[in-house]
Amino acid sequence: MAVSGGGPALGLENLLGVLGGDFVEVVHAPLGVTIPVSAIVIADTVIVERIERGDLVLGIGVHPASPEAEAAIDGADPGIVFAYKVDSDAERAALRALAERHGATVLAVSPEMSWNQLHALARTAVSAAVATVPDQRGVPFGDLFALANSAAAALEGPVIVDDERMEVVAFSSLGDPIDEIRQQSILQRRPPREFLDWCESTGTLPRVRQSLRPVRVVPPDGAVRLVTAIRAGSDILGYVWVAESKRELDQHSEDLLAEIARLAAVQMLRSRISEDLDRRVRGDLLRSALDGRGDTAVLESRLGIGTSRFRLLAFATDAQGGRAAGGLAELRPLEDLVALRVEASRRRGVATSRQGRVYAVLPSDDGPDSDVAALAEQIVGQAGRQLHLDVRAAVSGEFPRLDELGETRCEVERLLNTPLLDDSRRVVSFDDSVAHAVLSELTEVMLQRPRLLQGGVAAMVVSDRDRGTEFLPSLRAYFDACGDLTAAAKTLFVHRNTLKYRLTRIRDAFGVDVDDPAQRLVAELQTSVFAQRPELRAALPAVASVPD
């Protein structure tokens, strides 16, 4: 069934901003996310043939891989939006393939959002988009002045809308007679001091905030008024006032004013969202892409770029004063700072937060502002000065396509964990740390495949653990000194001949010949992993006998 239709339509990007990218993701959108949504439809076999452009079709109870889902999408206008619940990455991938195969606009809904929640939010947003009747000047929806005029016409009295600070944000202009309070409120964009003092002394505003119904007030030297709070849950967004003019304000007026306040709440919320809606939608798209979900083509179109190359930046906070690093309270201002600086760098970049870290992707170029590492340095410095956060950052190498974001994210996360980052160096770039980046990735591969750690070095580590030998630190010192026996011996505080003897024992007892290039390379990698991961040394099984 269709919930609403006709009249001005809500854009899909605005609807996504209302629903939130944590719960609803764009799987595929061949026409982009600016297409209109004018009606909410619950999918069933009866309406499949009657859906049309502008409909948001909720696939309630329809599995995304079912024949019913494909039947609905097959041949559908790309201006129709389909939404399905997905419970896993596999289902999301299957839904994306289905949408791409049929050229359909499809959303994936998280199981954490109930269909009832989605339906209510979408219905409210779409209904609000068509509910406001344009005033005699033809002011479009979204302008609180249009709502004030519509309210004044229905209530037959002048209307004023205040925000939560009692500052005037809109007022009707239908030529109704006005008293001194209204006149001064419009001129000063705030009610006169005498009226505010009266509201405080009589407890009027606290009474309005506590009441779920409009309150009748009779100010001195002013017309009788009805006032009600504009609410979003338990939050007060503002107040809407109507003064008695052409007719008495009665019970019907109270009911109508309560409904107007609900519409004002939707508009005020949308107004707040629209201020950073583009940033929020792009951030949600980026977070989905970092997780390997969503449609990267949509993200690329939202960045407003054509063929380009990209870099990914990642920022992490260090624990301070016993606080957990990367908490939501500190990530929000850090994310805002990163987004502001990325946008100010004259690139079409986008930022988002994910699992305790802030990420930004932006096109790279060969111009004077192409030093992304320098930008990261500036952000880290600014975070320290303004937000009092110890932040470290990593910059990826260039990559040609946004569908490589998932793999690139792993790259920058490895860089964030590199020992290169300390109090003296807060930013590391793949370009100037290739060796460490490669070593870090090889280490990760070896940890994922334990059989690559087997062999003579593992047996040597067991000997150190079970018999108290010192083969691992000796071999590590030798590698760190680039094969210089004298230098390595000094770091171990032993004689050069003692170290030479140990290397001979390592070769004869464990088959690790440091003079053989291939064995040396593998031994150096394995030694590095075992030296950094004591838990791996502890987990190695004991052997029946270790050569003397």
Word description of this protein:
This protein has 548 residues and is α+β, with helices and mostly antiparallel strands. It folds into 4 domains: 10-130, Udp-n-acetylmuramoylalanyl-d-glutamate--2,6- Diaminopimelate Ligase, Chain: A, domain 1 (3-Layer(aba) Sandwich); 133-275, GAF domain (Beta-Lactamase); 306-444, Reverse transcriptase/Diguanylate cyclase domain (Alpha-Beta Plaits, 2-Layer Sandwich); 449-539, PucR C-terminal helix-turn-helix domain (Arc Repressor Mutant, subunit A), CATH 1.10.10. The chain is built from 21 helices and 17 strands. It has helices at residues 12-19, 67-73, 89-102, 115-131, 144-155, 180-188, 193-202, 204-210, 251-275, 277-290, 296-303, 328-344, 372-387, 405-416, 434-448, 456-467, 471-480, 485-492, 496-510, 517-532, 534-539, and strands spanning 10-11, 24-28, 36-37, 39-42, 55-58, 81-85, 105-109, 159-163, 168-171, 215-217, 225-232, 235-243, 309-317, 350-354, 357-364, 391-395, 427-429. The strands form 4 sheets. Strands 2-7-6-5-4 form a 5-stranded mixed beta sheet.
Q: Helix amount, in percent?
A: 40-55%
What count of helical segments does DSSP give? Answer: 21
Radius of gyration: 32 Å
CATH class membership of the largest domain: Alpha Beta
**CATH architecture descriptor of the largest domain:** 2-Layer Sandwich
Query: How many structural domains does the protein architecture include?
Result: 4
CATH topology heading of the largest domain: Beta-Lactamase
Query: So, the CATH homologous superfamily of the largest domain?
Result: GAF domain
Low-confidence stretches: 1-7, 130-141, 319-326, 366-370
Helix/strand class:
alpha+beta
